[in-house]
Design brief:
Layout lengths: L16 H14 L12 H8 L3 H13 L3 E4 L2 E4 L26 E9 L3 H6 L8 E9 L7 E7 L1 H6 L1 H4 L6 E5 L5 H7 L5 E8 L5 E9 L5 E10 L6 E5 L1 H10 L5 E5 L3 E2 L1
Helix pairs in contact: 1-3, 2-3
Length: 269
């Protein structure tokens, strides 16, 4: 965005200029130009975009902060406008494939502080042998069928910026129960915008499939990687998500976007 003028244009009679800029910026947030949680351009770029001074932009941002529409942390300002999140809870349950406990079903989840699998370390940009928080999940129905197992490793970025995850380090002995089903909510609360890719592949000579989920933030920094193994002969994965092309329109007119569901093998970005 090129700067159009070094001086503020005259404000509309009776309305401070910074209020008009705040209103125009709010309109761009609402139309999806900047999705909720995404980082806003810097003051210099915003000043050039609206053709005003940086001081006017600063006052407009402060007005939006007071209304709870913009938040600022050490990474800068980002939109907090209420609306559809980048990823809905239905599409990002933790860990991937986690089941709602059925009568008689057995669920176990633990955390440990250990060196992750080599492929996890590489995906998370961790040095070989460097320990991190590793989460293990196991689910089976009452008859022992429908077995699901998942191993999740978290990155140094996730542990540094998500306080709730960091707290588990001192009690990650691999035996105590640990439910991290709100892990993605904690990440969002820390100002991270979540993007993920799921790859589903069959395991050779077995009836099982492996789902590998990789999650990164708005700066392309890895946050976590999960390997889930499902007995595809006795179970099925169901994905539920909102089509992104309709999300912005739904957020502006108050209607829910259509939800598509599918089960079986495939991949999702």
């Amino acid at each position: 965005m090129a700067r159009t003028t070094p001086h503020d244009p005259p404000a509309d009679e009776g309305e401070p200029l910074y209020r008009r800029i705040a209103r125009e910026l709010l309109g761009e947030l609402r139309d999806g130009t900047v999705p909720p949680g995404e980082r806003l351009p810097g003051e210099r770029r915003l000043a050039g975009h609206f053709g005003v001074s940086r001081e006017t932009v600063r006052q407009a941002l402060e007005l939006l902060r007071r209304d709870g529409l913009v938040a600022t942390d050490r990474r800068g300002s980002h939109a907090t406008l209420p609306g559809l999140p980048v990823e809905t809870p239905a599409s990002l349950t933790f860990p991937v494939g986690a089941r709602t406990a059925a009568p008689g079903g057995v669920t176990r989840a633990t955390v440990s502080w250990e060196a992750p699998p080599a492929d996890h370390a590489e995906a998370l940009e961790l040095a070989p042998g460097r320990p991190t928080l590793v989460h293990r999940y196991r689910y089976a129905t009452a008859d022992g069928q429908g077995l699901r197992t998942a191993v999740t490793s978290f990155s140094a970025v996730a542990l540094a910026e998500v306080e709730e995850l960091a707290r588990y380090r001192d009690r990650a002995d691999g035996t105590a129960a640990a439910q991290l089903r709100r892990a993605y909510d904690w990440m969002r609360r820390a100002g991270l915008t979540l993007h993920h890719r799921d790859a589903i592949t069959p395991l050779a000579s077995t009836p099982s499939v492996r789902v590998t989920r990789r999650v990164h933030d708005q700066y392309a920094r890895p946050l976590e990687i999960t390997d889930l193994v499902v007995d595809a002969q006795r179970d099925a994965l169901v994905y539920e998500f909102t089509l992104p092309g309709r999300a912005a329109q739904a957020a502006t007119d108050g209607r829910r976007s259509p939800v598509r569901r599918f089960a079986g093998a495939g991949s999702r970005t």
